[in-house]
Amino acid sequence: MLFHTPEFITLMLVSLVLFYAFPRWRIPILTVANMIFYVVAGLGNLLLFLAMTAFTYYCSKALRGSYSRFFLWFSIVVNVANLVFFKYTTFFIRSLENTFSIKLLTDNSFLLQIVLPIGISFYTFQMIAYLVDVYKKRWEPAQSLFHFWVFISFFAHLVAGPIMRGKEFMPQIDNLTKIKFSSANFRLGAFFLSLGIFKKVVLADYITPHVDSFFNHTATMTGAEGWVAAYLFAFQIFFDFSAYSEMALGIAYFFGMELAVNFRTPYLSKNPTEFWRRWHITLSNWIKDYIYIPLGGSRHGEVRQYTNLFIAMTISGIWHGASWTFVAWGMFYGLLATLHKIYIMLKEKLRLQALDNSRIYQFIAVIVFFHITCIAWVLFRVPGLHDALSLIKRMLTPAAFNFTGLRFWIFIALLLYALHVLEYFLHKNRSELSVWWHKYFPAPVRAVLYTVVAAVLILYLKGEQNTFIYFQF
């Protein structure tokens, strides 16, 4: 169920009315609402999700007993196996077929009929984080199975994040009955929901057909066309994914809850480390806390640190999809992160840290790294690894920077980047702008402007609704 559909808006409004009308029944209300939201993806998907939720909850209760270590690993293995079966089985078998030139799957094979349950990657990682945190006594097990279900399945963030931790979200679930109606929360919710809808239906969905048009002829695309396609896809995926996260923030605010921020204008990053602190922040933190640090982090020397970085980022790539292009995408960022660590070390040895204070250096670093990010997006977007690498090779030739005939699309890319910069300043100065807005624009004027914005968004919503890109992960 998409956020920007009449069906979801109806579900949300009914849930909100019941939520504030019957405070003592908030857990049952959200329990049912979350089931209704998810069952749209299929009854089988819901039953699987309910089964994994119950299994994880009861295993977490055993993490305070004598066999806590056994139950920790048993529950993690089952959760990972569930994800691997639905997401990677066909990929592994196809890889074996290609490697050994054998036929393992027939056209009517049962495995080819498996449909990836929506949100399985997100709720699996959230369950694993919960289990580890309970085992390490960072958080107590949920009060009840229903509390845990609402924690895992809250419809605002279920399908595509943000990935919430127990210490961040469980206290809010436990205190649902104490939440009071707040006009300030509703204003924040409306702001983030409107921003998300605008990004999705006005920006991302407008870019989508043009991105598809370019990538539909990847094999014959010139290097210049490759850059244009990569620029457009960079903003398509950012506006699409950040739209979902901001709509999730807005919906949570309506219910008096707060979700983690997942994006902070990532294309203003100067290096890969900063990028992953701005892009899909909750996944980046998850990878750091549950993969990188358990592997040893930076505690065992530089070579081990570089190896751990590479492994962690490769796993991040694999998490995104069952394809060698996603593996390559993760490895590419692992290599970038390693090279950046080495670069920092060399700067320190050569006493060049003063470069970081230079505005010119920072500007060049942002532009250069944005183009490196666009190269990475080619790996993410193009289905075949051979085709992706071939296109990247053409993009790295001198002729690729001759944009004759593509100037309109370069202008569009620059305009999108300008919007990205504007978003940075709006978020950075949000408090001051809010004071200015309420000081110089009286309530009737604000009401008219809000109505105009709502009307424009509603007009856009009457068109075809495209699913969110990250639903496939």
UniProtKB/TrEMBL annotation:
One of its GO terms (cellular component) is plasma membrane. GO terms for biological process: alginic acid biosynthetic process. Its main location: membrane. Keywords: Acyltransferase, Cell membrane, Membrane, Transferase, Transmembrane, Transmembrane helix. One of its GO terms (molecular function) is acyltransferase activity. It is a multi-pass membrane protein. The chain crosses the membrane at residues 6-23, 35-58, 70-89, 110-132, 144-163, 184-202, 318-339, 360-380, 400-422, 443-461. It comes from the Bacteria. The keyword Nucleotide-binding does not apply. InterPro entries: Ac/AlaTfrase_AlgI/DltB (IPR024194), AlgI (IPR028362), MB_O-acyltransferase (IPR051085), MBOAT_fam (IPR004299). It is found in: Cell membrane. PANTHER family: ACYLTRANSFERASE (PTHR13285), PROTEIN-CYSTEINE N-PALMITOYLTRANSFERASE RASP (PTHR13285:SF18). Belongs to the membrane-bound acyltransferase family. This is MBOAT family protein. It comes from Paenibacillus ginsengarvi.
